[in-house]
Structure formats: C-alpha cells, structure tokens
C-alpha cells in the first residue's frame, strides 16, 4: 500500500505527463495551421505572379503594335519568354511553400511524439513510485527518510553512543 505522499506524487507525475502530451498535441495543431497558411500564401503569391505576367504580356503586345511592327510568331517571342518565366516563378513559389509547410508539419509531428513520450515516461515513473511504495509497505522496509540518514540506529539512541 502506498502512502498518501506517494499517491500524491504518482498523481502529479501522471498529471504532468498528460499536460505535456496535451501541449504536444496543441503544438502539432498549431504547426498544421501554420503549414496550411504557408501553402495558401504560396498559392496566392503564385497567382499574383501569373496576373503580373499577363499584364506584362499585354504591355509587350501593345508596345509591339504601337511601334508599327507586325505581330507574328517572331514578335511574340518576348511574350512567350514572359509567360515561361512567370510559370517558372509561380512553380518555384509553390514549391517553396510546400517545403515550408512540410517542415512545419514535421516539427508538429515531432512535438506530438515528444509529448506522447513524456506521457509514457511519467506513467512509468508513477508506476515505479507506486511499486516502490507497495513493496516497501509489504516488507515493512518502507524508507521514511530517517533509516538511511545514518544517525539513528534502531532505538538504541544516537549513533556512536
């Protein structure tokens, strides 16, 4: 049988482990939300890049037409280059957002695993405390803190007398 102090200690160990586990879960949720934000921000930025490219292509076509040059496949080379560069920039922006999101998700998963590991550790610690108290009570050798202090010897008086 455990003493009240040991039972209180075990309860505290388990409660602490549960709190650390809940904290890890909360960190994982925040990391998932941040990852979704990064993906959305990258997508929005890629759309802005493509819209700007369309405006640049229109301006290039207007400049070509205003110069009196004939609009044919050769004069559209600048427009094609603008489109190609914009597509590459948009793809790199989305890729960068995915990488950031993946990193955030990984760190969130790591925080969750760490919380679960701390919960398991606190459960083992509480079980060890409970077992030590039970074993000590069963054999009558439960340590009260005075037996191992070195100054008291089984009711005979002070050590060395």
Structure description:
By secondary structure, the protein is mainly α. It has one domain. Helix content is 78%, strand content 0%. It is rod-shaped.
What does the secondary structure layout of this molecule look like, with pairings?
Elements: H1 4-66, H2 77-139
How do you describe this structure in short?
The protein is mainly alpha-helical. The chain is built from two helices and no strands.
Structural features:
rod-shaped, mainly alpha, 78% helix, disordered C terminus, 161 residues
Instruction: Give me the number of helical elements.
Output: 2
Helix content, binned percent: over 70%
The parts where pLDDT drops under 50 for at least 5 residues are 157-161
Largest sheet: none
Strand content: under 5%
Mean pLDDT: 80
In total, the number of domains comes to 1
Helix and strand pattern = HH
Count of β-strands: 0
